[in-house]
TrEMBL record:
Protein name: Amidase
PANTHER family: INDOLEACETAMIDE HYDROLASE (PTHR11895:SF76), TRANSAMIDASE (PTHR11895)
Organism: Brevibacterium epidermidis
Record keywords, A-Z: Hydrolase
Region called Disordered, residue ranges: 64-85
Positions of the Amidase domain: 27-449
High-level lineage: Bacteria, Bacillati, Actinomycetota, Actinomycetes, Micrococcales
Length: 468
């Protein structure tokens, strides 16, 4: 075992040392809590913590192992904080909102229930923007989460608290969710891996709406294999619609022979990129070629994607928050209020147009993936920006007046419904992380993970830690 804190072990390694009883769950949970105490004053990643509950669960896990109990779940005794938008029975869950600052739910979200079913010990909650709206993790309840690679910079969002915690060695992996990039952008900003899976792999269960497709629960970790293992453990059908079973989630091979990849950092001129981001991601082409992939400059027709994303996002925010807005008028942050209002203003013709555009986009992606296995592009168009800003104010000296304009790189992909993963791709001149985004066809999550695994093994960028 490494001489580092055991929290720096991968998820696979943590499970192994617990199973071998080289380490007890109490020791691992204590190290986890100690690491939070060490890094949280600088990052503000963790906002709720229940150490007594966690240690009691750890003692029970150790008792079961000592008794020689057979059939223990694979992650029995592994500690993990959860995204503060995911309900956890008996644990404060605020959604980053002043309106729910003391809210303690009596139900558990599917993604958390599945983690707990495989043995995870729930220790607390990680920070989010208000109702997970926005790609910068800041709210009026807990304040701003800061990037561990430079605490003057944003950790992105909305899963920014979880990403910062993983990057800092608080835990090996964690849950999040992704509407327009909320798993991928924090992964990029914090030099970790984040997968937005195909719809249905982790289904919604009632009272959640099983038909909502834009926001997807998923996982982040410091390694591709840990993300793949969590998908293997936690994915599967439920009472709602689901993708066909994917597999195998984990593979040994890292070569990419037989893979045809579209490669375009700016999606054929559809994205404006900061120069350092463009240069770092462009340099990855040779890595994929050396691994045996066939590269093409072709990109899919995404002209319908912006309208599809914005309409679907407005609809889902209005559907989810209309009662909160009606009960507490004027209490939502301004940008979120605008999104809810836009959803409430949608007309039947708007929805007819939306369906036609989504059908056109679906056809374009099916056509593209009939000749390509994956599409590779940037994750974030910019380097981590100032933590004092809600979003970057400029790209290449051009002012940004639309707070979603800088995330076209991820929102256009969300609109397609395709699985997409961010993997560490290198660093800018000041040491800030840059991520690369790998996209596959719906249901092609395993191929996305395979390609990411090959790139990760060939480059080793994910091994760099923040110097807090």
């Amino acid at each position: 075992m490494t001489t580092d804190s055991p929290t720096w072990l991968s998820l696979t390694e943590q499970a192994a040392v617990l199973d071998s009883r080289e380490l007890s769950s109490v020791e691992l949970v204590t190290a986890h809590l100690d690491r939070i105490a060490e890094i949280n004053p600088a990052t503000n990643a963790i906002v709720t913590l229940e150490p007594e509950r966690a240690l009691a669960a750890a003692r029970e896990a150790d008792r079961r192992r000592a008794a020689g109990e057979e059939g223990l779940p694979p992650l029995c005794g592994v500690p993990m904080t959860h995204k503060d938008t995911h309900d956890t029975t008996g644990m404060r869950t605020t959604y980053g909102s002043e309106l729910f600052a003391d809210h303690v739910p009596q139900r558990t979200s599917t993604v958390i229930a599945r983690l707990q079913s495989v043995g995870v010990i729930s220790t607390g909650k990680s920070n989010v923007p208000e109702f997970a709206a926005g790609a910068h993790t800041a709210n009026r309840v807990f304040g701003t989460t800061r990037n561990p690679f430079d605490i003057t910079r944003s950790a992105a969002g909305s899963s920014g608290g979880a990403a910062a915690a993983i990057a800092c060695g608080v835990q090996a992996a964690g849950d999040g969710s992704d509407t327009g990039g909320s798993l991928r952008l924090p992964a990029s900003f914090n030099n970790i891996v984040g997968l937005r899976p195909s719809h249905g792999w982790i289904p919604r269960t009632f009272p959640e709406d099983p038909w909502q497709w834009l926001s997807q629960p998923g996982f982040m970790a410091r390694t591709v294999d840990d993300v793949a293992w969590l998908m293997e453990l936690c994915s599967g059908t439920g009472p709602g619609p689901a993708s066909p079973r994917c597999g195998p989630w984990r593979e040994e091979a890292t070569d990419l022979s037989g893979i045809t990849a579209g490669f375009s950092p700016d999606l054929g001129g559809q994205l404006e990129l900061e120069a350092e981001v463009r240069d770092v991601v462009a340099g990855a082409a040779s890595v994929f070629a050396d691994l045996g992939a066939r590269l093409s400059e072709s990109v899919p027709d995404l002209r319908a994607a912006r309208g599809v994303f914005r309409t679907a996002r407005a609809y889902e925010f209005a559907a989810n928050l209309r009662e909160v807005d009606a009960t507490h008028p004027g209490r939502l942050k301004a940008s979120l209020q605008a999104d809810v209002d836009a959803g409430l203003a949608l007309t039947a013709p708007d929805l007819f147009d939306f369906d036609r555009a989504r059908t056109k986009l679906w056809a374009a992606m099916n056509d593209y993936f009939s000749t390509h296995d994956v599409l590779i592009t940037v994750t974030s168009q910019v380097l981590p920006f100032s933590a004092e800003d809600d979003y970057p104010t400029r790209i290449n000296s051009r002012p940004i007046d639309d707070y979603m304009a800088w995330v076209d790189s991820t929102t256009l992909i969300s609109a397609t419904g395709c699985p997409a993963l961010s993997v560490p791709a290198g660093f800018g001149s000041t040491g800030l992380p840059i991520g690369l985004q790998i996209i596959g066809p719906v249901g092609g999550d395993a191929t996305v993970l395979r390609v990411a695994r090959g790139f990760e093994a060939a480059t080793g960028y994910a091994r760099r830690r923040p110097d807090l």
